[in-house]
Amino acid sequence: MPLVTSKEMLQAALEGHFAVGAFNANNMEQVQGIVDAAVEERSPVILQVSQGAIRYAGLEFAAAMVKTAAAEADVPVVLHLDHGTDFDQNVRCLRAGFTSLMFDGSKRPFEENVAITSQVVHIAHVCGIPVEAELGCVLQSTDGVTYEEVCDAMTKPGEAKEFVERTGCDSLAVAIGSVHAMREAEAELNIELLKEIHQMVKIPLVLHGSSGVKEESEVEAIQYGIAKINVATMLNQAFTRALKEAIAADPENVDPRKFLIKSRDAVKEVVRHKMRLFGSSGQVTASGYKSPKTVHRTAKIGGAEE
Ligand code: G3H
Ligand code: ZN
């Protein structure tokens, strides 16, 4: 089916107390693994591309991969810009057919974040496309952050209320204790802070940096307004681990498909696990999509000429 926007999808998640996984993709195997899991799990899904992914694959190519995968799928798929840090990037993605945008002004002063987010919201809404914004800052583990720095960067509930009212953004990424790109799930979210934000801000809230968060904490957060959960590092780990194992198991092979099929399957299984954890599995049935099916992409990989 054609791409859908994240507006109704996240509202349904908020009201239904589940979260939609937003999975980062950089290449064809990741896109296919994510969408195949969604089809089999009867789950709505968000595929998101970061600015790094756009630099890697090219904007039109990245968008075309997701659009093609969505067209083949019979579950709703959203194409989302992840962490677009300037106005121009958002406009380019709007033009390329993205059905959900993010303006990330979290490193800018409050007033500047309000001003640019408002501009992005204005132009996106003219085209019927929703916008995620970020207030507070989900830091990067690669920057070697301390616990105090994570706490200092957390979202302030009063500011969040004012920010949402002034910008008109459709969803809000909140900093509640997660850190981007952690390789182990060790962090616990500040659920009391999340409850306060959720009481003051009625739009869907977004959890970034989920690879480093304990699963119990993620599940609890879904009960207090988290309706979108971003997953990236964990997918890259699964992809790369499977690739290394496949190469080690068959070092003489030169056909990359025999290795990459393992990576695609590994991504699919992590996504499936997360969809079940987030409660999005089976949600599409309620919206009228029926008959679960299995995706069989590659039964056999033949010789180099195939
Ligand atoms: O925007 C993407 C994410 O917040 C993913 O975070 O790499 O820690 O899973 P992660
Ligand atoms: Zn993020």
Describe this structure in words.
By secondary structure, this protein is of the alpha/beta class. Helix 9 links the parallel strand 6 and strand 7. It has an eight-stranded parallel β-sheet with strand order 3-2-1-8-7-6-5-4. The chain has 13 helices and eight strands. It has one domain (6-294): Alpha-Beta Barrel (TIM Barrel). Helices cover 49% and strands 12% of the residues. The chain binds glyceraldehyde-3-phosphate (G3H) and zinc ion. Residues 24, 82-83, 180-182, 208-212, 230-234 line the site of glyceraldehyde-3-phosphate.
What structural keywords apply?
306 residues; alpha/beta; TIM Barrel; eight-stranded parallel sheet; 49% helix; globular; binds glyceraldehyde-3-phosphate; binds zinc ion
Show unreliable segments. 289-293
Distance between the termini: 29 Å
What does the oligomeric state look like here? single chain
CATH architectural group: Alpha-Beta Barrel
Please give the CATH class: Alpha Beta
Radius of gyration: 19 Å
Summarize the amount of helix as a percent range.
40-55%
How would you spell out the order of helices and strands?
HEHEHHEHEHEHHEHEHEHHH
Number of helices: 13
Strand content: 5-15%
Q: Could you tell me the number of beta strands?
A: 8
CATH superfamily: Aldolase class I
The backbone outline, from C-alpha atoms, is globular
Provide the residue-averaged pLDDT.
94
Bound molecules: glyceraldehyde-3-phosphate, zinc ion
Side by side, the strands of the main sheet go: 3-2-1-8-7-6-5-4
What class would the helix/strand composition place it in?
alpha/beta
The main pleated sheet reads as:
8 strands, parallel
